[in-house]
Amino acid sequence: MISSIKALVNIPSVKDENSKDTPYGEDIDKALKKALEICDNLGFETYYDAEGYYGYAEIGEGKEMLGILGHLDVVPAGELSNWNTDPFEAQIKDGRLYGRGTQDDKGPTVAAIYAVKALMDSGIKFDKRIRFIFGTDEENLWGGIDKYMEKEEVPTLGFTPDAEFPMIHAEKGLLQSKLKSESSGKLVLSGGNAFNAVPDRIGYSGEYNERLKQELDNLGFEYEVQGETIYVIGKGAHASQPHNGINAIALIAIALNNIGVESNAIKFIAEVIGEDYNAKNIFGECEDEPSGKITFNIGKLNIDENQEEIAIDIRIPVTKDKEKIVDDIKQKVKEYNIEYEEFDFLNSLYVPKDHKLIKTLRKVYEEETGKDSTPLVIGGATYARAMDNCVAFGAVFPGQEKVEHQANEYIEVDTLIEVTKIYAAAVYNLTR
Ligand SMILES: [Zn+2]
Questions:
Q1: Choosing a second label site near 314 at 20 to 30 A (CA), which of 4, 144, 349, 415?
Q2: Quick one: angle between helices 413-430 and 2-9, nearest 10?
């Protein structure tokens, strides 16, 4: 198992947009072929998509199919001087296997493969087919897995070893949109870096400087002055957890609106959203039992002489209807002469607690670890969203360090072995 993980980690399978012969680059293609070769040697039937978007490895018999979704692409190593080892030459130090992809997601994927191999070696006959589906573009746009779901048989149920234990059974819908309007030409202001981040500061300089400072003092909002620019200070956070942050764009909008600056965007943000990241003025009390309240984040604001644009990120409770949410927004922004434009949407994921998949995985996890198995709810997105009846199951345990996408990414060898046992028990029970 370790040497298989090493072989995959040693292929720097980072996306290469410029490849002519492969969808995501030579190295991702090499990693895909390597994974199939490993599976082939272990006794699986393998299939390589002629276009190179995905591959799969299968064992067992029967009509139903258990899908295990892992991905073979990795994010870049980043600044090499931050690494203590070569990110693309996996090695064990002090019981930890270091290298890019050891935790996300080559290590856990290979652990699941060897879990099934252990069952095969024990002489277990599978009443369902088990299919490992290898994604090639998880870190970017999910092109590989989307192509698979379009062209191939979709598994009956499944899990992805690409997040954390015990399991994630609810992931809110993710809607990112732009709110656009004409500019009054009286304000130039921009800030925020991404839809999915609570902006931690925004700077303004111009004719309203003195009044803005005064108003920020009145409101008790934090700011600092650097030269001619006033920076309003918030607190950064992920858009799925806006309660951990303070939105600097919302603060400056409240202040600018109070001093009467003419702008549709400012007026909308100040009057409708303000500091309420649940946007009750738009959605009312929008929440449900499995996944909690809707969240609304203003990620970016861009106002120039001609146009105004607000970038928003909304996490929709799993039982709520997206179209209704969109209608609510459209109706409200119209009052401010603002147009709604969708940028991106990811469906929610929800597998109820009484579903066989959840019941089985909980039982297995409790038996193997003795730990609490209460399923998690998140605002973020895991690979499980690629298909129905699928959840993220491991491979990071509660309290363990999450080192995905970071320098010195590792997985403990002991963890790998424990994870393999859990996956073996899970596959065994899910194919009965
Ligand atoms: Zn991943």
A1: 144
A2: 110
Look up the CATH number of the domain holding residue 23. Answer: 3.40.630.10
CA 117 / ligand 1 centre spacing (Å): 22
Residues sharing a CB contact under 8 Å with residue 36, sequence separation 6 or more, in sequence order: 46, 47, 48, 55, 57, 134
Contact assessment for residue 382 and residue 346, using Cβ atoms and an 8 Å cutoff: no
> How far apart are the CA of 105 and the centre of ligand 1, in A?
5
262 noted as active-site residue = no
Same domain flag for 119 and 256 = no
**Which of 73, 162, 308, 404 is the catalytic position?**
73
Could you give the C-alpha distances from 79 to 84, 292, 407, in angstroms and in order?
Answer: 11, 38, 8
List the beta bridge partners of residue 170. Answer: 350, 377
As for how many domains the chain has, the answer is 2
Instruction: Give the tens place of pLDDT for each residue, 235-283.
Output: 999 999 999 999 999 999 999 999 999 999 999 999 999 999 999 999 9
Distance 36 CA to ligand 1 centre (A): 19
Per the structure block, which two tokens stand in for 380?
């973020």
Query: Residue 207, class by beta-carbon neighbours within 10 Å (0-12 exposed, 13-18 middle, 19+ buried)?
Result: exposed
Range of the structural domain that residue 31 is part of: 2-171+349-430
Residue 227 and residue 197 in contact, taking contact as beta carbons nearer than 8 Å:
no
- Averaged confidence pLDDT in the chain: 96
